[in-house]
């Protein structure tokens, strides 16, 4: 798989200090801040992201599809 022309649409990196991490990724790296999930939804969000990641891997591994 060649990712030389790929673009990053979203990054998920767990943080211990949300404010410090958000400041670093926004102000130092220049990544736009998209949203913050409300407290209490982390398990559901994690399950959704795992499912989406698996679907993306399947799609990327399917050589018969062009994206």
| Largest sheet features | none
**H/E topology pattern:** HH
| Beta-strand share of residues | under 5%
**Which structural class do the helices and strands define?**
mainly alpha
Number of helices: 2
- Give the overall form: flat
Contiguous runs where pLDDT drops below 50 for at least 5 residues: none
Report the helical percentage: 40-55%
Overall pLDDT confidence: 74
**CA gyration radius, whole angstroms:** 15 Å
| Span between termini | 13 Å
- The total of beta strands comes to 0
Descriptive overview:
There is one protein chain. The protein is mainly alpha-helical and 67 residues long. Helix content is 46%, strand content 0%.
Write the layout of secondary structure elements.
Blueprint: H1 18-28, H2 42-61
What key attributes describe this structure?
flat; 46% helix; 67 residues
In short:
The chain is mainly α and 67 residues long. The chain has a domain of 44 residues. It contains 2 helices and no strands.
